[in-house]
Amino acid sequence: MANTLNSDLEGITVAETRLSQINGEKGELLIRGLPIDELASNASYEETVFLLLNGRLPTSEETDEFRGKLASHRQICDEVQAVLQRAAREGKPAMDALRMGVAAANLGVEEQDLRKDIHRVIAVFPTIVATYWRYQQGKEPVAPRDDLGHATNFLYMLTGERPSEARAAGLETYLNTVVEHGLNASTFTARVVVSTESDLISAATAAVGALKGPLHGGAPGPVLEMLQEVYETGDAEKYVRETLDAGERLMGFGHRVYRARDPRAAVLESAAESFHTEKGDGEFFEAAQEFEDVATDLLAEYVPDRRLETNVEFYTAILLDGVGIPKDLFTATFAISRVSGWMAHALEQLDDNRLIRPSSHYVGETKRSWTPVEDR
Ligand code: ACO
């Protein structure tokens, strides 16, 4: 069979999906056929996940039932808590702690059918992240409440206080916005794992590892630092030029698929605006908007043959900061949402599974012979 080398798999289609459709040229994203802006600002996270898993919006009874099902799987066992405590004590980053916690999330749980653990996998993510964070802050963990929705309960577990509706709604918009996005690196990772007929916890653990990197989910923390620095100096152009002159990448800009502004940026921009206005630091938000304009123009000057615009991570940083999520938890909060996309893809993969097994092109030496150790 003729073989072409595609080391980054760009433009290679390896799966059919009904979950999301991305138009990279126009900058459009549909989740199960619904435009992302419509879904993100109207749905609860539970409704979004139900839609992803079932292909239609739930009735109100179904939403309640689904919310209850997720809420009933939120607990983590003492041993997982101990791992998170140790990770916090050793100063491990949140994504490392999440990876360790997820990997152990079936401890104490009777072995389940491969497909039934899906609710547990989605439900434990916020508990793991919040438990780690409480230990990190030198505080006792806050047990999850089963009478709160997914987003509200996460904020509650972080602080021990029920969040305002505005904060919960801001987080919900964020969780809805980033829940699913085609065959990004972490989703592909999850599909590869389940294609071996491994299990969902293994898929989620591997996907957390893939999401951690700065080229994927690790960008929003550095974005916030960048914006804070520029807000203090007031000189966006200097910052951007220095970064690009040093051959570095500007965090929060560029995307493998989009050749337009990432449509999720607009959703998060308007959600972030309300927070920063409400918090009384609308000036910071406006400075970020100005930064976006300056950076987009300068990127066009420095990289003329590639359209580089804001990706999802730029306004993620500003929205999550407004909602009160600590910077060190930005990527883990991304994972709290995206795990549902991973799980939906895992089910799709299993519906019509064939082992994902690409090939490599050998470029090493040939025709060598064995050298005894005394002759080497
Ligand atoms: N800043 C400066 N230059 C950039 C940027 C950027 N943010 N992004 C791409 N470029 C330049 C590259 O330098 C490259 O030029 P070169 O080949 O001469 O070095 C050219 O544009 C093409 O870039 P590629 O590396 O081919 O683009 P790719 O599709 O691999 O990258 C990526 C996409 C990884 C997101 C990239 O744009 C980037 O590194 N952005 C910054 C990190 C970031 O924001 N990550 C979050 C991504 S969103 C998400 O995953 C949820």
UniProtKB/TrEMBL annotation:
Its EC number is 2.3.3.16. It catalyses: oxaloacetate + acetyl-CoA + H2O = citrate + CoA + H(+). Pfam families: Citrate_synt. One of its GO terms (molecular function) is citrate synthase activity. The active site is at residues 255, 313. Keywords: Plasmid, Transferase. InterPro entries: Citrate_synth-like_lrg_a-sub (IPR016142), Citrate_synth-like_sm_a-sub (IPR016143), Citrate_synthase (IPR002020), Citrate_synthase_AS (IPR019810), Citrate_synthase_bac-typ (IPR024176), Citrate_synthase_sf (IPR036969). The keyword Transferase applies. CDD domains: BsCS-I_like. Belongs to the citrate synthase family. PANTHER family: CITRATE SYNTHASE, CITRATE SYNTHASE 2-RELATED. This is Citrate synthase. The lineage of its organism: Archaea, Methanobacteriati, Methanobacteriota, Stenosarchaea group, Halobacteria.
